[in-house]
Amino acid sequence: MSHSRRKQLVFTVKDRCRVCYTCVRECPVKAIRIVNGQAEVINERCIGCGNCTIVCSQGAKIFLQTDDDLKTLLKQEQKVAAIIAPSFPAEFTEMDDYKKFVGMVRRLGFSLVCEVAFGADLVAAKYKELHHELADYGSISSDCPAIVFYIEHYHPQLVGDLAKVVSPMVAMTRIVKEKYGNDTKVVFIGPCIAKKAESDEVDEAITFKELRTLFEENNITPENVNPTDFDPPHGGKGAIFPVSRGLLQTAGISEDILNENVIVASGRVNFREAIREFENEKENKHHLELLCCRGCIVGPGMSKRGSRYSRRANVSNYVRKRLQDIDMDEWKRNVEKFSKLDFSQQHETRDRRMSVPGEEEISKVLKSIGKFEIKDHLNCGSCGYDTCREHAIAIIQGLAEDEMCLPYSIEKLHKSISDLNISNESLASTRQALKQSEKLASMGQLSAGIAHELNNPLGVITMYSNILKDEASEDDPVREDLELIVEQAARCKKIVGGLLNFARKNQVNLVPTNIIDFVKQSIASIIKPENITIYSESKIVDPMANIDNDQMMQVLTNLEKNAVEAMPDGGQIQITITGDKENVSITVTDEGTGISKENMEHIFTPFFTTKGTGKGTGLGLPLVYGIVKMHQGQIEVKSNADNQAGKTGTTFKVTFPRGSAGY
Ligand code: ADP
Ligand code: MG
């Protein structure tokens, strides 16, 4: 048998693939590779069992369609014989008379319609002839092409154990050519995909599914054809071949199955297990009768009609009926005549085994998908591989991807979610800062306007108060007042200048300053009622830091003034200086009314004030914020305005870098 394995038998429709890995799981030879989350069939590894086309609920796995090639063949001026697999009663269950079915096939343009069942009769006879020899040495039936491919590809050392007998399809092809001439083209019609690549002797192979399409296209129905019988030679018991143990039953060797050491297995798990056992226990000399899918009557080339057991019953009923009508003498004559033909078959070795990677490499990949210890090996099968180890090996072999591991992907997802949360939080705080700097910018514009307007009248006040002061004699009682006016006007000018600087975002004028003294100075400049006391405490070793004195003084006095104003009934204000090598923090804590949650987000907004008109300006905290930011610092607020939640009060903490001063 020469397998024209160049043909790709199964394809993936990428758009339909939903990446469930069911095909990976069901593929007995791992011929499906996942690349970028997409499944693709590796032709060299595929044995054409068609399991994946059956299990894919999305219809993303389709098999090679050759009905168009058949149409071309039928158009040629040549004798074309259809040879029908004996499982046809399991597919065309709606047909009450097989002769109608034969008529329909003939109507498609076939010159001859024969049954593979007769080929099965002769193959069975061959097996019977060889049986004692086969059983003595142990052997594997070669009637299922997917099994033959499997042995050739994945157990090449067992190729010699494959029965050297052709399949019923090839046997029938040889019989048809012998009877009707070598130029007769032969088309196999059956339930199997692998048949399309089994033998070059067969000119075309289509499935029952494709046959149904052809019937529909040509509007051929059981009602509009002439019922005819199959062309000879007619099949006998071989028609029972497609039901499990069919070949053995046909060969008459199934009755004493125990004595004869025959093992029958079908389906992707069972057949592999049987082969493994066969290989390991060769001395037991079993004969294996194997099918790759779940049997010819539910083959991948069948449409999904009817249940397995009713299909089986249909085949049995058909065979029973046929055997009643059969002309046994003629059948025997035919068997005798055609059994002279050569039905032998040689099998080839086509090793497709992949090398198994080393332990070190496997454990490295296992670790990369979170399997550090044996207890991490969940072997859940969600990736399509039975064990985590098999998945790891497949990753190394380039067949699988790490994302296929569901527990690993879920864990990765959790991590991404928490990463996302973190970046979300930082985004929120950046947004907050941005909002604040927008507010600051508008406040800057405003203060620049005011400062500009104030500058001129202040200049006039300074100039005239100086003139008046100079004119007043040393002992003039107004001189002291004039000096105060000059001094305060100068201070105003400085602040206005500072505001202008701030508005222009000028750099701060940093000078090394003793923060402890500086805080004390700020406390001294505050006007406070008797019932309020201000304490200051330093917890730092080195008090030196680089700050802009005028501006930072505004920060402290504003915070202190706010604290005083928040305590109409008196209390204590605590100022604490802390710090480390890089930063200095000044904390101002009061026992005042606190800031409500609703107000909290507004306190840095220019002109936001809860104090009555004429009392508050709402410019204190925005200014504080701007100055702290210009010092590359930070400001934090904690407050409780709810009596029930505990003592009320507010803490402002200003932190800024020491700059080159200190340490
Ligand atoms: P103003 O003092 O002119 O109202 P600020 O910008 O200094 O403007 O303060 C804005 C608002 O923030 C105040 O009106 C007040 O509601 C609130 N606030 C600021 N500091 C405190 C504090 N220590 N305790 C309670 N509320 C405060
Ligand atoms: Mg204020």
**Helix fraction by DSSP (H/I, runs of at least 4):** 40-55%
For the biggest sheet, the summary is: 5 strands, mixed
Give the CA-CA distance, first to last residue.
90 Å
Q: Ranges with pLDDT <50 over ≥5 residues?
A: 1-5
- The rounded Rg comes to 47 Å
The small-molecule ligands in this entry are:
adenosine-5'-diphosphate, magnesium ion
Structural class: alpha/beta
Strand content: 5-15%
Q: What is the residue-averaged pLDDT?
A: 88
> How many strand elements?
18
- Cross-sheet strand order for the largest sheet: 13-15-16-18-17
The total of helices stands at 22
Estimate the global geometry from the Cα principal axes: rod-shaped
* Structural domains: how many: 5
Quick recap:
With 663 residues, the protein is α/β, with parallel strands linked by helices. The protein has helices at 22-26, 51-55, 67-75, 88-91, 98-107, 116-137, 145-154, 168-180, 208-217, 246-251, 257-260, 270-280, 308-325, 328-338, 359-368, 388-396, 406-471, 478-503, 515-524, 549-565, 597-600, 620-630; strands at residues 10-12, 32-35, 38-41, 61-63, 80-84, 112-115, 139-140, 185-190, 204-207, 262-266, 287-291, 511-514, 532-538, 544-547, 571-579, 583-590, 634-640, 649-657. The chain has five domains: 3-51, Alpha-Beta Plaits, CATH 3.30.70; 65-338, no CATH class; 359-404, no CATH class; 410-503, Helix Hairpins (Orthogonal Bundle), CATH 1.10.287; 511-657, Histidine kinase-like ATPase, C-terminal domain (Heat Shock Protein 90).
